[in-house]
């Protein structure tokens, strides 16, 4: 089932009516969702006569995708008889209007009640509701109200024209301007949790030992990663300039290795102010920023929204190309717009945006989809998807959008909000094709190496403090080496020491990674003081962790030795001089 089997469609008509202005129709639909996701629907209709000689006699509509239960119709005088016809694709409901009001401006009012099973569905830690689309042959003023339990959580994704307020038990959402041509999707929940298992195959074809990197899912402003397994352990992990996490493995000559990486991703928006690098505007292999055709488009479409709308309206998704692993780039996608995949939507958005002076980059990763034709994924690398991000200077952070899914879902607004079902594997900013994402490191192209499922519970392992060691460099400054022994990042790390005049901060220290700080020397005589034999480092990290670390001052004993040697030399020279004068 895809989003309640593509939603419910209401096709309304009144018999003996040809002109849409002969009646004014006002409709109000209330959806009340219970704790299990089942929904009570109250559909209230008012038909106002615009002419004295016309009277409505019949009303009918069809529900597609779900089977309505316990259908009842009534007006102020009592029940109204209904008839239903059920087929494999819809349920047709028809009711006569025996008490229709005659006369101009007279109102025929009635209501229809029914139940819908499963309108709200759980997806991991979230609830998702797709309201039925409403299509009518009559001009209609339609208001929609949605009532859901507060236990569903925070409203994290909703149509732009909706308003929300809460009472003690429910969230109450109102759509005054219900767009019948759009799908109206609501997602409730603060976070999403995914468990992942990734497999990699590396081969060193060189005749010498080589360090070979793989990409592993990184922390971003929208996700937090905790690994439960990286087997075998890498030599080290580092973060590149784009924010990717790269794990390096040492392979002997002419050898291969299989690597397994498992963990959990916590998806939720936590924007972090950043300054985009110059590389977020540069031309790349699949992003021909300086091509005349692209420059012409960039001169016309100058905002992220206008670029997004152009891409969505220009390209069409072709699921027949799902078995093709060829990435075309922005220019090729413009040559044959009907043959586009998610990478085409993404490449075209990024290229025009960069040409217009808007920093943009590509995210490749996993996006949960229960219908690959409607929410398609990237072919060739397991079940991966690609979407762009642009930089918003007003908020100083990256904003993720998904033009592919806006196109294929027939208008769900993935520009204003991105749902909690997108998990980033790699960030392509400095280069349009590096690093390759998980799913690309295979011995057999047909092998599935990416597995992502909804997590049933959140893991919260203890966070060990960073390891500190001092590397002594004779006749030079020493080095403080900080290592993260955890399988998760240490965030907001700060190291300070007054005697060393040290105050360093790191926004994140990736798992199994290290940082090196050059230590300044204490003044010679200060270093000899007993209290400076050991030095205290004040360490704070990950919001609520604080610790004092004691390290040996490498210069204390060296300078003490130097002082002793100098003193001995002075005493020896002094002794010689005195003996000669005696």
Automatic annotation (TrEMBL):
Residues 330-405 form the Transglutaminase-like domain. Pfam families: Transglut_core. Residues 1-19 form the signal peptide. InterPro entries: Papain-like_cys_pep_sf, Transglutaminase-like. The keyword Transferase does not apply. SUPFAM superfamilies: Cysteine proteinases. The chain crosses the membrane at residues 557-578. Keywords: Membrane, Signal, Transmembrane, Transmembrane helix. The keyword Membrane applies. This is Transglutaminase-like domain-containing protein. It comes from Candidatus Shapirobacteria bacterium CG_4_10_14_0_2_um_filter_40_12.
